Prior knowledge:
Layout: E1 5-10, H1 14-25, E2 31-37, E3 52-53, H2 57-60, E4 67-70, H3 75-87, E5 91-94, H4 97-113, E6 118-119, H5 130-137, E7 143-149, H6 152-162, H7 167-176, H8 184-188, H9 191-205, E8 215-216, H10 224-233, E9 236-246, E10 249-259, E11 272-279, E12 283-290, H11 294-308, H12 317-321, E13 326-328, E14 332-339, H13 342-347, E15 352-358, E16 363-370, H14 371-374, E17 386-389
Parallel strand pairs: 1-2, 1-4, 2-3, 4-5, 5-6, 8-10, 10-13
Antiparallel strand pairs: 7-9, 7-11, 9-10, 11-12, 14-16, 14-17, 15-16
Helix pairs in contact: 1-11, 3-4, 4-9, 5-9, 6-7
Bound molecules: NADP nicotinamide-adenine-dinucleotide phosphate (NAP).
NADP nicotinamide-adenine-dinucleotide phosphate binds at residues 10-16, 37-40, 43, 56, 71-74, 77, 95-96, 122, 126, 178-179, 181-182, 292-293, 297.
Amino acid sequence: MSKELNIGLVGFGCVGSGLYEVLNKSKLIDATIKKIVVQDPYKERSISKTNFSFDINDILADDEINTVVELINDSDEAYKIVKKALESGKDVVSANKKLIAEHLDELIFIAAKNNASFLYEGAVAGSIPIIRNLEEYYNNDSLTSIEGIVNGTTNYILTKSNDGVDYDTALKEAQKLGFAELDPTLDVDGFDSKYKLVLLLKHAFGLNVAPEEVQNIGIRNVTKYEIAYANEKGYRIKLFSKAEKIGDNVVGFVAPHFVKKDHFAFGVDNEFNALVVEALFSDKQLFIGKGAGSYPTASAVLSDISALKFEYKYEYRKTSEDSQLSFTNDFFLKVYIGSPFVEAINQIPFYRVDELFQSDDYAYQTGWVKFSELEDYNLNHRKEISLVILPEPFKGSESLFSGKLERHRVALEV
Ligand SMILES: NC(=O)c1ccc[n+]([C@@H]2O[C@H](COP(=O)([O-])OP(=O)(O)OC[C@H]3O[C@@H](n4cnc5c(N)ncnc54)[C@H](OP(=O)(O)O)[C@@H]3O)[C@@H](O)[C@H]2O)c1
């Protein structure tokens, strides 16, 4: 028998109002929104103001409400709400990747202790059902990699940049369309993609990785020169969240990548997201869909609500199965580093240099760097340095290079 759901909805913005509509339009799910809590009593609403309350305790202290759907844009407040709801044994659905990535273990523990369910399909890649697939479909297969575009805003900006639109205009358009996070740095500096990657690392590899352990390099510094380089080589630039098993280690990071025409992500444009999951037996599978926006995200939230009717809980089976795996940033990869200042490029230690270019106003160098060493250069905050990963497989250890490895510093003439 399915459980009767009485929902307390927190947040009625892009996703919350979308959920209200899709829940009312869907004839398949029988669930009632009993209360809606928002913040601003003076805001115009698309439905009668009598539906709203402004005190979260109207939901948390209501014993008839057994399901809290948290869709607010403040992750600190969201954490408090989700925690209290789970502590009182209410099931929770959330789409807030920052809150979940930062507190996942604690929230899993509280949920289990109170026999509550905590679901968050909408937090990763919008409408793409990736978490549930990792939990259910791939639970008996050993995954080797998961990678893709999981942020609609940056994909939208990169698509527009490719068409010649400048960065600020493209960002404003994405915000107007409701894709962008309240704080755009979360999107453009790769934090949002990183929080999602932390959740993927948990469900795909059973790893508990804190967001601070994962390096994120965003797209803020991708300039017309990187776009020109991409066009010249027949590449496109895409921001990837990437996790890959190398031996008993898993590497994971977020960074812009050049992708070739035959790559699955080449034609994935605008707010679309796409992920490829590679597993030992099932090989590669591609998931593609709208990664942001009101209805697409609401559809993932709706799917969680529907799962709650059958008392569905994530089992986190990979956590015990793959527990011998560890997370590392120690690997080599081939990068393009560009800058108007040659001195800036020369600061980055290269282990092998493949290509050098210098003109009056720009220079770039391609070659192999050790990923863990990039952290020292704080690339998101160095406006003068652009890094894009080149399409070459990673190398897991120094022995994979022939000959002795040496760091090169001075490569271009100043
Ligand atoms: N937008 C997307 O495409 C998308 C995609 C995936 C995941 N998400 C996630 O979904 C969540 C909601 O995003 P959104 O785009 O719908 O945000 P939004 O449009 O900015 O709406 C936020 C809503 O939260 C309410 N709110 C903020 N603080 C509150 C508080 N302390 N108590 C009660 N209500 C509060 C706001 O109230 P008022 O209406 O009174 O201002 C508003 O209704 C976020 O975690 C976001 O990361 C969004």
